[in-house]
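A student in our group prepared the protein record below, which I am reviewing. I have pasted the whole thing underneath without changing anything:
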Amino acid sequence: MATFSVIKKSQLEGTLRLDAEYYQPEYLEVRKKLAKSPSLSNISNKITDFGAYSQMNFVKYANSGVRFLRNQDVGEFFIQDDDPVFISQETYGRLSLKLEEYDIVMSRVGTLGNAAVIFKDKLPASANQNLAQVKPNRKKINPLYLAVFLSSRLGHAQFDWLATGNVQPWLNLSQINSIKVFVPSIDIQSSIAQLAIQTLVAYKGSKIFYTQAENLLLKELGLKDFKEEDELFSIIKLSDVKSAQRMDAEYFQSKYEKLISEIKNQNGKLLGDLVSVKKGIEIGAEEYQDEGRLFIRVSSLSKNGLIGKDQRYLNEKLYQKLKKDFEPKIGEILLTKDATPGIAYVLKEPVEGIISGGILRLKLKGEIEPEYLALCINSIIGQWQAERDAGGSIIAHWKPEQIKNLMIPILPELTQQKIADLVKKSHETRKKAEELLYQAKHKVEQLIDSQK
């Protein structure tokens, strides 16, 4: 059924926008509810971006040092730590903008609307030009409440209608300044902030459990303190070159040889002997819809599960046609093979959706803990092998034949179980964090919806 909005000419002149998306009924309703609320600029001491300086030649990534944030590092309320990058202390000293405790960083290019609070444990830190820095006036607004509001439906709706650009939507600083923020009493803000703090505690607990599982795995393999050594050359047999059908130096780095040797010492087996492998399907972008059945792409998957942002959907007819062969089942491991190869996740709940061609379904053949196997793939055990096999291309592609030859250490069953239990606790605690954040956002939305 078609939907439409009737807009006065004076409203068009005031916004300088003529596109229908800007005047969707749901957006008009949000604007109406927030009409009397202050703008973000009215409750902030400063709103700025990190400018082109953050992409200057002297900004080089380092193995450790000062955290340097990018779009993908900013989640809902949290700074993500899955793939952190750093800059040296010297580089940090040359940057004019630096983050401080209780600043909020917002994504303003591509995937819009994520807003995360900076806590002391992330400092010192800076960021690139794709993020905005908001310094809330703490006499007017609780930073934790503000981050929850920006992550709520009311915040996201504003990001969506303010965004400009087609291929890659973005927000400029004047648009960010104009975002309306509902400001309840300090007591109500504090109660929502408390839910946010509980969310943070659960999120950190999830990371601790996962780190414990990974450390136990590497300890059992004798890789806990394994360090890469810079070696100027390696001596390789011609038979190895023929077997690998590769002769580039990156493939024959000594770290890979040492890793495989340690895995073989632990009764290592090929992944193809442990699982059956089934590839997803590619469909044309013309089949994408704004709603319907989920189309699970590489960007939809993380080691912690499916990502709710920037999803694509299929119509019911196409879904029904493909579901028999391409819908994943509970207990299977979803594994990315393209773009960011080597992300593995054990599916825990039913999904009504189809996996793309960049993802494989791994179905266990025998007695191996699925969470243990997924952790092996997500750790340096799998990541280094994926890096070795898929390296050398602008867009990485990990071939199914290579994936089947992935070496997996087979630790004693009891050890596998201990590791798997820690991973399960990590996922359960993370789910609790997501539920607490949902409660906080829902409470904000209820407050606004109840306003007359």
Observations:
- The chain has three domains: 34-183, 184-221+416-452, 235-410.
- Residues 235-410 form a domain with the Adenine-n6-DNA-methyltransferase TaqI; Chain A, domain 2 fold (CATH 3.90.220.20).
- The CA atoms of residues 327 and 354 lie 5 Å apart.
